[in-house]
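Example (one chain per record):
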Amino acid sequence: MFSPHGHALRLVVPMVSRAAFPRGGRRRGLVALGIRTHQQADDDFQALASYSRSQGLCELAEHGRYTDRVPEVCYWDIVGGARAARAYLLGAQAALVGSVVMFVLELKRGRGTRNIPYSGLIVRPGRFGTRVGVRIAW
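Predicted structure:
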């Protein structure tokens, strides 16, 4: 395949460019999972709070666990959900950092596509600012 100027076009996308896009999708997915998991943990906390209001104060055993099984299960659901949400959000941040690193590496390579100017675009200084126009051949 050749460009209008006779130069061969490169059809191979650099590996650095390919790696940045999946990281962006992974980041969005991890954020969505983190939000959903955090919301579930928050719902579990509300369930524990409403159970405690309806039953009175929940008693704790000497080892720090609830004596009643229902609030104990709710508590561990909250802890597990909070840990999972934290892991998802940290994974999203790691994917963001990876995307930024890939972007910087792509910039440092300096071998991007050639700048092919559009010859019909006109940008000139004007009396009251910059004039922008389009040249149309008839």
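Caption: The first helix runs from residue 15 to 55.
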